Amino acid sequence: MTRFVLGRIGFCTLIAVLLAFFTIPLLWLVTAPFTSDPSYEVKVPDFTWDNFQAVVEHPYALPSLYNSLVLSVGTAVLVVLLAALAAYALSRVRLPGRDALLYALLLLSSIITGTAAMVPLFQLAVELNLIDSHLGLILILTGGLLPAAIFMLKDFMDSTPKSYEESARVFGASPLQIVRHVVVPLVRPGLATIGVWALANVWGNFLMPYLLLSDVEKQPAAVITYTLYTEGGQANLSMLSTFGLLYSIPVVLMYLFVSKKYGFRFHGGIKR
Amino acid sequence: MAQATSPPEVVKEDARTRRGYSSDAAGLGSLRAGAFVAPALLLIAAFLVFPALWVLYLGLTNYRLTGAAAAEPEFVGLANLLDAVFNPTFWNSTWLTVQFVLGSAVIGQVVLGFTIAWLLRDRAGPLKRLVEGLVILAWILPSAVVSFLWVALLDRDGGTLNALLGIPGFPWLLDHPMLSIIVFNTWRGTAFSMMLYGAALGNVPPSHLESARLAGASGWQQLRDVVFPHIRGHILTNLLLISLWTFNDFSPFLLTAGGPDGRSEVLAVHVYKVALQSGELGYGAAVSTIILLINLVVAVFYLRLLRSKK
């Protein structure tokens, strides 16, 4: 009995400590935006909307959220489109050297990181005149996300039955029609997953836009947050907290949506 | 760049495809299939493979961002690599990176992630959802936001941590920069390990645990003799992936910018500072080459283990 009670107390303490550890850093984000003239201190907010007013009036804040949106949607669309085409072909057609290619893709996606490739990517962007270009950044980000996306999608395509495609073929549909009208609807959940994954990835990406976009008007929210933080020595806390909150809300909503719709967990392996 | 999502099922996949999933049901044909794959491969080649190869070449030149060497870089062979090897700053960064990976990934995220998964293993309901939701929240918020949250938390005068501990004025980021980024990254990344171990623990047959319990095994003995042997593969996958990610993580820069005096300048930050702030692109590329090589070793090791497991 004592052992049970002790275990119970231990469990509750541990959970309480864990909850505190994960909650305390977040408190500031939910209190400071609603506090007039916030400091680093976590205070009970006086529920003012002035900080949001300031964000709306800031010349770069809302545009940067728009830039983030352009970059993430652009990249997600491109990643889904190209990865789906490639994954379908790799899943259904035994191209020469396919297995080696897949192995190489897997290796590439895990070893070449922004950290390792930042110098040549910066140079490449300078040479190709892609500095300060959203399109350039989208292409670069897409290149980085594609190997992992192809991988996950190929797995998905492998596990969808091919009998629908066969019967469509029997009825005389052309290969491209089959892909568009049979395969795409079948793998839609997989496409959605990859899309959300790419969207979230780019939305939070700091290093690449920081390296490749120097024009403030083109920078996404990740970079703008950081400039609010160092500019003029003093961090503008009311701006920062409020902007941070606005910048975070879309990912949280997306997470809630995904976890509701697909369940946000691993099934057996790592992905899906 | 991409948070590499490394699928451990790849090898199994191949076995499955060989059993007939690979047939060309839509009658695509090799030519069209090639056209389907080409655009993706082109982008990967241009923005992933080429930069990686280019970094190898750059590391052998004295290329700089500005000045004479910017116009006409010269081939200097292994000079940059030797520079790095004899440069105490490089070794300092390497050592800090080792601390960062061991402290925040191997110890912090794995232990904390497993502990949470274990504590919540047969629970359902609001408590589980609350804990998991908070842990995942720390993982999905943009890094620019969370790093600033930690700047606020650790602030010497108004920061919540000092207020809670009753030690106003204690400069965490100045006095303990490494500890700060290690705890920060543990907080940030535990979700992945938690979810992975949560899934892994679901695969441990309850009957095995039950019989261990009936045989009088203590909690620790159950863990050691029943649970760990079952999830060994997951532990390995988890360790390698999070080590790789932490090793390449740039977010310490957002918290401490490598300072004070380079005391939290992990390799990722070191490359950025020497290459893009000081403009020594050649030397930075040589350090990048070393990072690539370490990544390669870890990844090959990982794939080997996966293959041998099947």
TrEMBL record, chain A:
Pfam families: BPD_transp_1 (PF00528). The chain crosses the membrane at residues 9-30, 69-90, 102-122, 134-153, 190-212, 237-258. It comes from Nonomuraea deserti. Keywords: Cell membrane, Membrane, Transmembrane, Transmembrane helix, Transport. It comes from the Bacteria. It is found in: Cell membrane. Residues 65-258 form the ABC transmembrane type-1 domain. Belongs to the binding-protein-dependent transport system permease family. This is Carbohydrate ABC transporter permease. GO terms for cellular component: plasma membrane. Its main location: membrane.
UniProtKB/TrEMBL annotation, chain B:
Keywords: Cell membrane, Membrane, Transmembrane, Transmembrane helix, Transport. Residues 95-302 form the ABC transmembrane type-1 domain. Pfam families: BPD_transp_1. GO terms for biological process: transmembrane transport. It is found in: Cell membrane. InterPro entries: MetI-like, MetI-like_sf. It comes from the Bacteria. This is Sugar ABC transporter permease.
